[in-house]
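[step 3/7] fold_predict: job queued, chain A
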Amino acid sequence: MSRLFEELARARTPIGEISLRRRLEPELQVDVWEVQLGDEFLMSSLFTTGERALAELGLAATPGDQPGSLDVVVGGLGLGYTAVEALADSRVRSLRVVDALAEVIDWHRRGLVPLGPELTGDSRCELVHGNFFELVAAGLPFEGRPDRFHAILVDIDHSPRHLLHPDNAGFYEPAGLRHLAAQLHPGGVFALWSNDAPDEEFVAVLRGVFAGAEAKIVSFPNFYSGRTADSTIYVATT
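[step 4/7] structure written:
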């Protein structure tokens, strides 16, 4: 059990000052890891249902049942819950997890976050420092990459409309999504986490690029409000 509050890391980044802290949640008596960008909370280890559902729903839609047969990309490392959920699928042969902030990757390599040792200790997993959106536009030029990927799972912006940086907007438009779809095998899956309610206009954009797309609502209890909270997972198939 940690002390009541401890700041584990802080750094200035191109998108603002980011900090990692660990604190004791007194009512639950559990340690909570939180990431903050400036004054805005980005993520918490207390609420991980949406991050895990991104991998679960995305990979559930990915065809094939042979162990060690899938090559997967995750855009956005965060606290690592999407990546760990993906690695739990025995079909995953390789997993590349891209994050624009070297500091976040360093947290995992130094074991400052709970899932760091699990990710860095799995030979299937590679943590990649880079701008995910720029890498997609460039054709995901990873060293030793396969011809195409079976699934690309993305959790970076708050939603297709609520962006961390305005430069990301083009990714959610038809041309940007076509660049991504070109990196997927036929039948491959693009899945996206969103903190907002389902956006039917964005679903229509997805359906204009992919063979099929739907928005799935994921609900989870919010300890602080005493109510159920929702997030959205978009799942599109080539």
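[step 5/7] annotate
The longest strand covers residues 184-194.
The chain has a mean pLDDT of 95.
exit 0
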